[in-house]
Write a structure and sequence with these properties.
The complex is a heterodimer of chains A (about 110) and B (about 120). Chain A is mainly β. Chain A has no helices and ten strands. Chain A has strands spanning about 5, 10-15, 20-25, 30-35, 45-50, 65-70, 75-80, 90-95, 105, 110-114. In chain B, a hairpin with a 2-residue loop joins strand 7 (about 60) and strand 8 (about 65-70). Chain B is an all-beta fold. Classes of the chains: A mainly beta (about 110), B mainly beta (about 120).
Amino acid sequence: GAGVSQSPSNKVTEKGKDVELRCDPISGHTALYWYRQSLGQGLEFLIYFQGNSAPDKSGLPSDRFSAERTGGSVSTLTIQRTQQEDSAVYLCASSGDRANQPQHFGDGTRLSIL
Amino acid sequence: AQKITQTQPGMFVQEKEAVTLDCTYDTSDPSYGLFWYKQPSSGEMIFLIYQGSYDQQNATEGRYSLNFQKARKSANLVISASQLGDSAMYFCAMREGRNTGNQFYFGTGTSLTVIP
C-alpha cells in the first residue's frame, strides 16, 4: 500500500491477556517508530528501529512491552499481561533514510483493556 | 531539558485570521530538522511543513509558513487565513544530526480552535 498500515484498528481485550499490534511501514523506509498516545495527550515514544541496528528501546514503559521488526519491514508490538493503564492509541510511523524526511504515520490501533 | 517545548496548550483564532503556534527547541547539534504535524480529532497525524537548520529561508507550504529564528531556537508555525478545518492538535518535532534515521522528539502539542 501507499501508506503505513496498522492492524487491528481497534482491539478490546481483558486485563491480563497478551496483545499483538502490527505495523506495515512504507516500502523502502528504513526507520520505524512506535508511539503511545492517551486521550488528549501528546506522543509517548516507545521504540525505534533503524535498518539493521539494535533498536532504541528506551521508551518502553515496562518489561511487559516488547517489539520486533522482521526482515527490516513489518513490526509487531507485543504487550503481555495487559493492564488497564495500557489503554491508549498505539501509533506506528516510518521514515526514509534522509534526515530531512518526515515520519509518515499509520492510523493507529485503539487498545481498550477491560 | 526538553528537546521541544510548546507553551500554548490551547489557542483560539477567528476564522480567516492568522495564528502563530509557538515552538522552541534545544539542541547542540548544528544539523537538525524541524517538523510540524497536524492531528485532527479523527486521530491521523498529518505532516505539514519542514525546516532544515541550514535553510536560509523560512519554509512555506500553502497557508502554512514557519517563522524560523535560529538564534532564539524557535520554529513557530504560522497559519494564514484560518479555516474551520484547521481546528486540530498541532505538534512540533525535531530530528537531530546528519545521520539517517535519527530519533524524532515531539512537543506536547497545541490545541487550535477556529471560531466561525
